[in-house]
């Protein structure tokens, strides 16, 4: 192996004046390097976005959520609460009522998601870092208060300083046909805005959090709940607690951990990441055609060298190895330099935030990035495999040419 490697290195790192074939080989290596670096950078951005979403939702989402397998709401019975509270590791239950409602403020109105939460939600402080104005409280001076998303605040011009204008919430009733009283078609309640939050765009633009009793009265749920959010003592035991709860509650309920509560979103990110990986890998594969042409021309140019090696006792296997190693040098130098460049760029972005979001009100100022070792491994293996495959045909051609020269 030493002799083929020595000859391949001489072909690539020749100190003589670079000819056209050498230039193509160098360009091929640079294309592989740029493609690899781009692949690492883009994958790191996807990792950073996923990590950012997990951290954002982690501030608000419960460790475990219990919902009904079929249907919208369920009766919160003492037996159900006992099963949950008796599960080892459970520290508390937040009762949830969530449904759509019509919000009216001054002359503006819109459909929002109203989420009623029991008082221990405030005690847990899951949204304490998301409050942009006002306080994280459902009550002030014995009056119920709402915590409103910042997007709703901006859209409807809601102000906590205006003590004379309240949020008006409407919810349709199930009425019998033939009723002539318009007010019997809906429930109406008013509540003061007590604070605004900035959590994530979907929540900010759609959600209003209110006391559980307020939501129960407006939505006419009467002891029913749409979900139960479970807090736990030890986050490392979440899988075990989730399995215990699912076994205890049975198939009538669905028990989800924090990731499963946003499973569709994370799956979408993973699919997008996969397609980006495939797309950029195909770009590198197309660029690897340069390696095929450069090696093919090198075989033609080194015809005399092949004849000399044959005269010195080399066989077709050695000739094939020389050109395979030549392709491997291009592959490893291109992939290696690309991985290094990609790592440096990602590290600089993570450390100094070179590329910003361009929006002052963004949750983070710079684009989030995250390095994952598996991305480096799979990217390197893919690039090396592609460039190696591009080297096979020219090396076989060189081996066949050596057999022809030997016969001749």
Automatic annotation (TrEMBL):
Transmembrane segments: 20-46, 274-301, 322-347, 367-392
One Pfam family from the record: FtsX
Every MacB-like periplasmic core domain range: 26-152
InterPro entries: ABC3_permease_C (IPR003838), Lipoprotein-release_system (IPR051447), MacB_PCD (IPR025857)
Annotated ABC3 transporter permease C-terminal domain residues: 278-402
Protein location: Cell membrane
Keywords carried by this UniProt record: Cell membrane, Membrane, Transmembrane, Transmembrane helix
Keyword Cell membrane: yes
Membrane topology, as annotated: Multi-pass membrane protein
Stretch forming the signal peptide: none
PANTHER family, alphabetized: LIPOPROTEIN-RELEASING SYSTEM TRANSMEMBRANE PROTEIN LOLE
Similarity remark: Belongs to the ABC-4 integral membrane protein family. LolC/E subfamily.
UniProt-recorded name of the protein: FtsX-like permease family protein
